[in-house]
Amino acid sequence: MNVHILGCGVSAPGLPDIEALSQVLAGGELGEDKPGSGNISLLSPRERRRCPETVRLSMAAAEQACQTAGLDPSEPDAVFASGMGDLAISDYMCRTLAETPDLLSPMRFHNSVHNAAAGYWSIGAGGRGDVTALSGATDSLVTGLMEAASHILTDHRPVLLVVYDSAADGPMRAVWPANHPFASAFVMGVAEGNQGSAIKLGPEPARVDDDCPSLPAGLAERAADNPAARALHLLALLQGYHRGPVHLAARQGPGLRIEPVT
Amino acid sequence: MARTAAGYTPNRMNDLHIAAMTLTCAAGTGLDAVRPALLKGRSGLRANDYPNCSLETWIGRVDGVEDVTLEGDLARFQCRNNQLATLALDQDGFRESAAALLERHRPERIACVIGTSTAGISSTEVAYRNLDDAGHFRPEHVMPWVHTPHTSAAFVAAALGLNGPVQTVSTACSSSAKVFATAARLIESGWADAAVVGGVDSLCLSVLYGFHSLELVSPEPCRPFDRDRNGLNLGEAAGFAIVERDPGESLGRLLGWGETSDAHHMASPHPEGAGAIAAIRRSLERAGLAPEAVGYVNCHGTATPMNDRIETMALRTVFDTPPPASSTKAWTGHTLGAAGITETVFSLLALNDGYLPASLNCNEPEPEAADFILREGRQEKVEAVMSNSFGFGGSNCTLIMGAA
User: Fold this and answer.
1) Which of B148, B173, B234 to probe the A interface (max A CBs under 10 A)?
2) Closest CA to A144 of A231, A66, A208, A257
3) CATH code linked to domain A2-27+35-199
4) What angle do CA B207, B210, B211 make, to 5 degrees?
5) CA A80, A84, A86, A90 torsion-angle sign
6) Tens of pLDDT along A164-193?
7) Using CA atoms, how far apart are residues B4 and B212, in angstroms rounded to an integer?
8) What is the mean pLDDT of residues A235-249?
9) Could you give the C-alpha distances from A104 to A115, B124, B208, B216, in angstroms and in order?
10) Under a CB-based contact definition with an 8 Å cutoff, are residues B81 and B200 in contact?
11) In this complex, which of B142, B166, B278 lies closest to A128 when CB atoms are compared?
12) Which residues are CB-neighbours of B63 under 8 A, at least 6 positions away?
């Protein structure tokens, strides 16, 4: 099925925005500086301090995507896809429950839901449509793309897809060894008219490994480091760095083949 | 379909049927146990006996979950949530129904969409209580297929041999209502021909102490819509359904759904119920039904003072006179990520059995709800039923099911 990408965004160390990504794709160096929260305008300074890290991470990418699409952030339905949710909050919850359960923070508890990033987004953007949150573990990008595409095809309206995962500190590194957080966002719309770039998405049954045109070394490392950063292959295609096709694997169910519509 | 005042033009999908369903909750393991519990007003709640938890409250705990062992390839999924899922899959001939579905469709054309909020977190809690001296998980706790929200859908797909799109929806208490909308979209847009949907949530310290920290837990059996209600009880449940276009037998049709956000607060509902009202209205628009066509509402009805007051307000806003309605949470506890499937199954039972369950423990109803909240079960044939699910993050989902 064909969809238009109307705008995209990125948020990761050394990649505070799409412009920074373009520079790395053009041969620039990939830094390690964590993106500041200066890219987030939709939360008050107080909310920015109180909200979990993954909210800041995902929201920065989501805002950029809406901005480049020229879309009011309150408008699109949204799909938030994350394999693990906020690992720092899970760590806090499990440690506190092991030691002093009666002292559990009510705010951190309600921030521990998997849809925290989705919820803060709808509050910040004022979006009252469907803002969903899903997980596909290491394949959340594939799951999220299918979910977003199915929204577009059934409701014929633009959808914001945000794919993010953090890095684990502490014991959860044993099951989620990512070293760098990563978020990307895509405003996707019905494939008609001339706005944005059109891509074709199709299922690929039984694909066990990603197969994509090569990326600059630093970005390839990131794509291998954090499953959410597999979106770099799609971002590189959208930035015209290569023409695809991008084959994304899935451990269960179909993978995806993505290529430009010519 | 006419463009609505909200500027939202819902797209009416082809008819989708519920081909099979099952439910395991505190009120009963399988529908043969759940049905008589509903008829006789037999609650599944008990005084809190969850291990390592000293809170004074009542819980909806399912017997026998601890005794389930996942074997062979499924051993990598061993945790309370997936043990509960296994127990539920074993009831009501659901595995046979899934096998029959696999005769009708190729495995890669059957989606698996499961809602959860707790996932395997009770196992993560245990792993943290038993860290080694260096602060790492001990080897037996390094279970990547358990310590992720996605454990739920991944496990069900593996257990049933489904190979279509696999998705875990995790939007707190609306999770396993939204799975029906997701399945409908995946089928309508061609990613799948049919879907196994459901929800699984299991008791754990995170939710027991978490809701306690928010001062939302009642020390007594919960009393939804009672004027003296003082909070919720937590519960666990697993339920599943098969969603398909043309099954041989049908338990009902998915007529409509509404998914909205409050855009207000992470843990408190919108004070005027804006998101709830919008979800109910969208579900009616999508179903192409006037409000009076709905014969029964299974409310979210958590028994917190605020939820029940705002839900009452929302129903009063949409319906001139709300239809007979009840909350079934005094049977099950609030099963969070499994609340949507639990109460959708209750709604489908109402549709099929012609029996509308009471709002158990509602002795003195909230005055505003007194004329429509069922204080006793009622034999009544209805053609369409509604189920509400509202969650943290302001995530709302309303479903409408119609007679087959």
Assistant:
1) B148
2) A231
3) 3.40.47.10
4) 85
5) positive
6) 999 998 999 999 999 999 999 999 998 776
7) 41
8) 97
9) 19, 16, 11, 14
10) yes
11) B278
12) B29
